[in-house]
Amino acid sequence: MRFEDEWSANEGCLVREAGSLGELLDRLTGTFSPSLFGHAEVKALTARARRLPPTLAGFPTWLGFPIDDSPPAVCLEVSVLGGTRSAALVEAANLSAGPDPETVAAAFLLEETGKENSQLRRVVGDRVVLHYSIDSLESEEVEASVLLYPVRPTLEGDDSGGRLEDFTLACDAMAFATGRESHVDRHRNLERTYRAMGPGTRIGAIGASPAGKGALRLTVLGFVGADSAIAFLNCAGWSGGETAVISALARLEARGAIAGMQLGVQFDVTPAGIRPPLELQIYSAATIRDNTGWFKDRDCWTGLIDGLLKEGLADPGNLPELNNWSFAAKPFFGRSGLLLLLQRIHHFAIVVDGEGRSRVNAHVFLLLSRWRHSANCSG
Q: Which of 104, 296, 316, 329 is deepest in the core (most CB within 10 A)?
């Protein structure tokens, strides 16, 4: 079955499964160990997700949370693919009374990438990601942002900045969608960041919060080894020095805990330059989906989890439960029939904020799929 047909079949099943994504997540997170998630934070996040259609659970979804002794925090990312029932529901919500700002931004981007001969779709594809987070240290409110995930070949580093025009197009679209005015200094800093990328690296995401002021958030992927990531940051204009995240990454590398892994960096680009929070992501190329299935490598996280434990970067009580996420596909008995819940570790991240506080997060992947042989899940 084509992926498009599978997505459609999943949506037909999930639209009858629950009234909203939040309602469905409430039921799903009830099957996870409470040790991994802050109860109040998850409740706030799922309450916000009650404004989203349940069909989004059938597309790639991520949950992120600290695995050290940091105060509770959680983030949720959901994918909206153009041309799907989910995209139509998001676009319809934009026309309702008082839509959320992130819904307005997402609907605009989906409309732009859905146009015939869309130049934006050529660069970023037709997927928009909605990001929601709550941090008990920062606020009791859920923060929302919107991200574009560029099509892999289009914004790769090549030392020449040859695709700078495409990069600028995507950044301008995100800035416009989230209500940011054009700013020459921000443009200059974005260009510097892009030109600092070397071969093998790529822009992984471009995002912004409609409630934020001025910044665009970039994720750059594909670094091999701590030195290459640090060299990029220095060239791009990072002035944070040898922060806790860089020190922790170097210690993990010395242990061999990130051997075979790739690294990503995430930061805000503002008119004043690159600013925190700085996030160093650790992920495995072996967990990328190919034509044989999702996240095949069951063992790629063992060395990293062990290194995090030995360096005191993770709470030992969280790791056994987290390890259960490394490869799991379990039945979920839903209202519309038997479903399959796919769970994987997606990546780890070492983060430092503007106050110098650091934490280690795990980001896990989940997707709710119809059971191929279950009845009453069509349409």
A: 104
